[in-house]
Amino acid sequence: MVAADRRGVTPPARYDGLVTYDPERPWNAWLESDSGAADPTANTASGPRIRSVAELTRLVRERLRDAPGLRDVWVEGEIGQVSVSAAGHAYLTLKDDRAQLRCVIFRDDRLRIPFAPQTGLRVVAHGRLDVFEQQGVYQFYVDSLQPAGFGDLALRLEAMKARLAAEGLFDAARKRPLPPWPASIGVATSETGAVLHDILQVLQRRWPRVRVVFSPCLVQGEAAPTAIIAALRRLERWIDASSGRGVDLVIVARGGGSLEDLWPFNDERVVRAVAAFPRPVVAGIGHETDVTLVDFTADVRAATPSVAAELAVPSRDEQGTRLLTLRGSLHRAGTRALATQRIALEAERRALDTLRPSAVLTAERERIGLLLDRATRAIQERLSTDRALLGRSADRLPRLAQARTMLAGTDLRSAARALGALSPFATLERGYAIVRRADGSVVRSALEQRLGDPLEVRLAQGGLDVRVERVRDSAP
């Protein structure tokens, strides 16, 4: 059991040099930093004059300004860390192998310089030396800058970058995608400083259920490369006891610094360790303008450690909104599908009611009866007309009475035969049949039908319900 510290909060679990921030434990207590300072003591003893900080700083500034040779100075050195403020002023350091000098280039002077100051560039600067009272530091105020060549570290960096790129360590094809919902994240960075605090804050805000496995290491100095590699190996060995899985990804991070400060992340051993790590690696090293070889090798490069944490996990708010949107889309799609199926089912029901075979047969019988009645009336009207004509002719042609009688008998027999020929039932009596589809239409060509179509065959006596088994384009 791990004892609580003086704040009464159980610290994160430690094992094999790793610190695990479990989502079941309160992170916020560990994200808060201790604050406060020792009580100031008053110097009431009598003695020499005691100056204020402002007085002493002003005195130094005045002496510095009055010193000969410090108002018009040329100095050569290698540019270290460079940053540009929102106001357009540039802040950088000039250094050699024994010392470094803080420099400021005001916006108007910076815009007149024909090139942008870059880390590792050796330059010759002109300006004046003065004191910045608010911070109590002396600075070199640069008004012109000339390139003098690349520094040793920059030359080594470019040579190593070209060699590793030729090996394919920076190829986009070897980059691995980050898991969308990681359960465990490894973090390799310094145990001191604000980097770990910033990463934990972001992870807690965006995806609080993630487990963080912290592997502390040095991030600056000669021993840093070995420490970084050891931290990665510890993370590679870590296994979650409940799930049996290792970390889903690793964040390698540190704060900003000069090229020399960031040099451990240009060390070839560290670069190859990152390339060989079995899980995706996110590099959050330095500030946005700082670029190291680990940034080129990592699967994802972030501008800062906080951005690395942002990229490592999804946002619970965004995921919640996305789930609500998907649920609404699914509900609407299901409702539309059910409505469409309901309409189709109702249409099928109405079609079946309309195309019922008995109803179709009844309608056809009624239609045939009407046609037969019309034919009978037409023949009777014709016979009446013919009888009247023959009666009038009998008065004028008495000698043709016998011929009239014979003619009249012949017409009647012909009319009867014509009536019988017009009757559809007479056709059926001769062995023919009427073939209809399910909708009542008459089938006139075999090629209009498909295999399996239902048909009704009307015979002289009764009918048959059949299905098409074969279609022929002519009689056998």
Largest sheet: 7 strands, mixed
**Stretches where pLDDT falls below 50 for ≥5 residues?**
1-8, 33-45
CATH topology of the domain at 170-314: Rossmann fold
CATH homologous superfamily classification of the domain at 170-314 = Response regulator
Number of strands: 15
Known CATH architecture of the domain at 170-314: 3-Layer(aba) Sandwich
What is the number of helices? 13
Cross-sheet strand order for the largest sheet? 1-2-9-8-10-11-12
The fraction of residues assigned to DSSP E strands is: 15-25%
Distance between the ends:
97 Å
Structural class: alpha/beta
Average pLDDT, rounded to a whole number, is 82
Radius of gyration: 51 Å
Overall geometric form: rod-shaped
**Sequence of secondary-structure elements:** EEHHEEEHEEHEHEHEHEHEHHHHHEEE
**Text of the CATH class of the domain at 170-314:** Alpha Beta
DSSP helix fraction:
40-55%
3D structure, described in words:
- The protein is of the alpha/beta class.
- Among the domains are: 67-150, Nucleic acid-binding proteins (OB fold (Dihydrolipoamide Acetyltransferase, E2P)), CATH 2.40.50; 170-314, 3-Layer(aba) Sandwich (Rossmann fold), CATH 3.40.50; 424-476, no CATH class.
- The chain is built from 13 helices and 15 strands.
- The protein has helices at residues 28-31, 53-66, 107-112, 152-166, 195-206, 224-237, 268-276, 293-297, 305-312, 316-354, 357-396, 401-422, 424-429; strands at 13-15, 18-21, 73-84, 90-95, 100-105, 121-132, 137-150, 184-189, 211-216, 249-254, 281-285, 300-301, 434-436, 454-458, 463-467.
- The protein has a seven-stranded mixed sheet. Strands 3-4-5-7-6 form a five-stranded mixed beta barrel.
- Strand 4 and strand 5 form a beta hairpin.
- Helix 5 packs parallel to helix 9 and helix 6 runs parallel beside helix 7 (268-276).
- It starts with 12 loop residues before the first strand and ends in a 9-residue tail after the last strand.
- The model is unreliable at 1-8 and 33-45 (pLDDT under 50).
